[in-house]
């Protein structure tokens, strides 16, 4: 069955400090990257940056892919995965706003979340770091 996979990550240099999220959206069936999204957050915590990367990936996937195709989100943030899966409470107000934004984007679409080890999330980490280095957001669609 076809599905869209989002690898999302975020980082903060200083925690809190200069922060950005990153997402790589790809068609799992074809093995093709659809887009890379960097979202510069400014001054924030690592967890807020992680949420921003996930939200950016979801937004792109929801806007650019078939609504009948399920989405699978992979992240190395256990916190975000557990909170978005509904197993952990969200106490931080900034993260609660971002989680609500993600849920609104998801709507009725089938979306699952999976924790992966940091080494398995290198592509999204590289996108987040590029956004931090540039101090700007960007979208690189597939060429």
Automatic annotation (TrEMBL):
Residues 1-133 form the RNase H type-1 domain. CDD domains: RNase_HI_like. It holds the Pfam family RVT_3. InterPro entries: RNaseH-like_sf (IPR012337), RNaseH_domain (IPR002156), RNaseH_sf (IPR036397). GO terms for molecular function: nucleic acid binding; RNA-DNA hybrid ribonuclease activity. PROSITE patterns: RNASE_H_1. This is Unannotated protein.
């Amino acid at each position: 069955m076809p599905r869209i996979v989002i690898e999302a990550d975020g980082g903060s240099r200083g925690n809190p400090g200069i922060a950005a999220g990153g997402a790589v959206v790809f068609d799992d069936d074809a093995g093709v990257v659809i887009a890379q999204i960097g979202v510069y957050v400014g001054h924030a915590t690592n967890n807020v940056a992680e949420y921003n990367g996930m939200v950016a990936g979801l937004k792109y996937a929801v806007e650019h892919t078939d609504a009948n195709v399920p989405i699978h989100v992979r992240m190395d943030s256990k916190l975000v995965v557990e909170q978005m899966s509904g197993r952990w409470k969200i106490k931080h107000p900034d993260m609660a706003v971002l989680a609500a934004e993600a849920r609104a984007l998801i709507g009725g679409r089938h979306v699952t979340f999976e924790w992966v080890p940091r080494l398995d999330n290198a592509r999204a980490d590289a996108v987040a770091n590029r956004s931090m280095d540039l101090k700007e957001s960007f979208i690189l669609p597939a060429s």
